[in-house]
Specification:
This protein is an alpha+beta fold and 148 residues long. Helix content is 24%, strand content 44%. The chain contains one helix and eight strands. The longest helix is centred in the first third of the chain and has 35 residues. The termini are far apart.
Length: 148
């Protein structure tokens, strides 16, 4: 059987349509990956030192340069707030990570959203159970700021 010119043209048109569809799909994938890589890029990183002592006497320390819970007794808790201000011209997302050495003691909201030109208090709660060793503990809170 011989192919007619009409069949050859249809086959060529189909191939061209598949190539165009393929290129459109590739372009969509590149656009989305560029958008999400830009959106998830860390634009700022900040660290805050955290300290506390587990003792048999209560005490506190008011310090603006670090997050100091002071002296904490067994089977107790303490809370401190850190204010984060968004000075960017867009909304931000703040991911909060606590260093491994004190992570078991600290409860904090892991992701915080802040609108442009607004501030938000992030609450850090320290929990000490009945069977912890007395001593001084320290670590860091790391704030990763991303475009929301």
């Amino acid at each position: 059987m011989k192919r007619t010119n009409n069949q050859k043209v249809k086959k060529t048109d189909n191939q061209r349509n598949y190539i165009i569809l393929f290129l459109i799909i590739v372009l969509i994938i590149i656009t989305y990956s560029t958008y999400f890589s830009f959106k998830n890029k860390v634009i700022e990183k900040s660290e805050l030192e955290i300290k506390f002592n587990i003792t048999n006497k209560i005490g506190f320390d008011l310090n603006n340069t670090l997050l100091n819970f002071g002296n904490v007794v067994l089977d107790s808790s303490s809370t401190r707030n850190v204010q984060i201000k968004n000075n960017h011209a867009f909304d931000i997302k703040v991911n909060v990570l606590i260093s491994d050495d004190i992570e078991r003691f600290i409860a904090v909201e892991k992701t915080v959203y802040i609108k442009k030109n607004e501030s938000k208090d992030v609450e850090f709660s320290l929990y000490v159970n009945k069977i912890q060793d007395f001593g001084s503990y320290s670590g860091k809170a790391v704030f990763y700021i991303l475009r929301a």
